[in-house]
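re: ur msg from earlier - yeah i can do the thymidine-5'-diphosphate complex, just paste it... oh wait u already did. ok heres what im feeding in:
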Amino acid sequence: MTGRFISLEGGEGVGKSTQLLALQAALAEGGIDCLTTREPGGSAGAEAIRTLLLDGDEGRWSIQSEALLFAAARADHVEKTIRPALTQGRWVLSDRFLDSSLAYQGGAGGLGLETVRTLHELGSQGFLPDRTLVLVLGGGNERARARDSAGSDRIGGRSADYHRQVDEAFRLIAQQEPERVRLVDASGTPAEVTQRLLDAIADLLP
Ligand code: TYD
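and the outut:
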């Protein structure tokens, strides 16, 4: 069996963590054993970088340093966790991947999408998911953010304007790469959302 690499993306509080587990369970029911992982993190080195990125004051890193740290964490994650699993024929499901850097650092952070793609080329040889599922809600995701703001970290705690730009960037990326990146409506019951996610990877299933 050929392993597939799927990433799950979205702004803050769109129900991503719940859906990651639900999608893993649905795939398991269909006989697909999926390794779940996350970013920033997913390997020992990348988990160490995660703490640097998410803890501390807003001014701890410049946007350039921040993007480089995400790219470094991702390079380690790809090399140590994702590629080895795919080589063994396993499916990999990642809670966030490159498109978070494109949206948060490239779009909202102002670095530009092309700069982030260049860093990814250097760090991970441009390695991309077979499919990227972006959970989206109407209204600039503000409803979801209001629910989520309590436990925010260095990046999650940024302004509503920043998060609106994250949302816009995800939509732009989906337009630029329609084959790989699919927007998935995150409204409705959790079961309805899970079904939409499954529909959006139906062509990849064995
Ligand atoms: P996390 O606690 O995993 O949040 P979430 O539940 O929203 O996924 O924190 C990850 C934070 O890091 C989140 O605010 C998104 C941000 N992030 C980036 O800014 N760039 C990236 O490349 C990645 C992977 C995450």
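cool cool. DSSP finds eight helices and five strands in the chain. ping me if u need the other ligands too
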